[in-house]
Specification:
- The protein has an 8-stranded mixed beta sheet with strand order 1-2-3-4-5-6-7-8, with helices on one face.
- Helix 4 packs parallel to helix 6.
- With 225 residues, the protein is α/β, with parallel strands linked by helices.
- Helix content is 33%, strand content 21%.
- It has a single domain, classed as TIM Barrel.
- The structure holds iron/sulfur cluster (SF4).
- The site of iron/sulfur cluster (SF4) has 13 residues, from loops.
Length: 225
């Protein structure tokens, strides 16, 4: 948990909540301790979170929930309902692998912002996420999110030799017409599998070139800092 974040909920000040567990195994994942449930982590319950956030509302705008993959958690729906009841705005960062859960929170109007991480082009998706998943589920989530009325963004992470500029442009083509793309920077110092990723990073000018090349496909493309 990070009690104050200026960057996780676009345009808002938020408390950043991190949940463990992910159904993907991206070699470049910076959260090894989150994707393996067996690594002990401090736990905090819903009541405690409400107690922490509620007195800060007015200063904070809401909470951001990331991971790991928040939609793997059965208790997420009741947590989001409580946030609604408390009038606390919520941003979720997801890997889009659970279309029914995404549809549910949108239908029930339980969230205010959705960030969707797309690890690689759909044609190489299972190789990049390093797990047997149903790519049709990701496609379905993308459709649902693009039709929704809430603000959303897609996020990608270019990595030399693994997710190249051409891959980002393939993703851009798949998501063409979407509202916003955020290009995340790769940090090779904390990753799941350094053997696959290496330590090379794209330079600032290479990232700007990727941003400019992807720009025609989106309403807005930004580099994260
Ligand atoms: S989807 Fe995100 S949290 Fe899950 S393994 Fe990939 S980088 Fe890590």
């Amino acid at each position: 948990m990070n009690r104050l974040s200026l960057v996780d909920f676009p345009g808002k000040l938020c408390m950043n909540l991190i949940v463990p567990g992910c159904n993907y195994r991206c070699a470049y994942c910076p959260h090894e301790q989150l994707i393996h449930h067996h690594i002990p982590m401090p736990k905090i319950g819903m009541v405690e979170i409400v107690k922490l956030v509620r007195p800060r509302m007015g200063f904070l705008d809401g909470v951001s929930i990331g991971g790991g993959e928040p939609f793997l958690h059965r208790g997420l729906g009741s947590f989001l309902s409580e946030m609604r009841f408390q009038n606390i705005k919520v941003r979720i960062k997801t890997n889009a692998s659970r279309p029914r859960a995404v549809q549910y929170v949108l239908d029930e109007e339980l969230i205010d912002y959705l960030s969707v991480f797309i690890p690689g082009p759909l044609s190489r998706y299972t190789d990049i996420v390093n797990y047997r998943i149903n790519v049709d589920d990701v496609k379905r989530s993308i459709q649902i999110i693009r039709k929704s009325n809430i603000p959303y963004e897609f996020r990608v992470k270019p990595i030399p030799g693994l997710v190249e500029k051409e891959d980002i442009l393939e993703i851009a083509n798949t998501l063409s017409g979407s509202r916003r793309l955020v290009i995340e920077r790769f940090d090779p110092t904390h990753i799941l599998d350094p053997k696959v990723c290496g330590s090379e990073v794209f330079s600032q000018s290479e990232l700007e070139d990727i941003r400019d090349s992807a720009s025609p496909y989106f309403g807005e493309v930004i580099l994260s800092y």
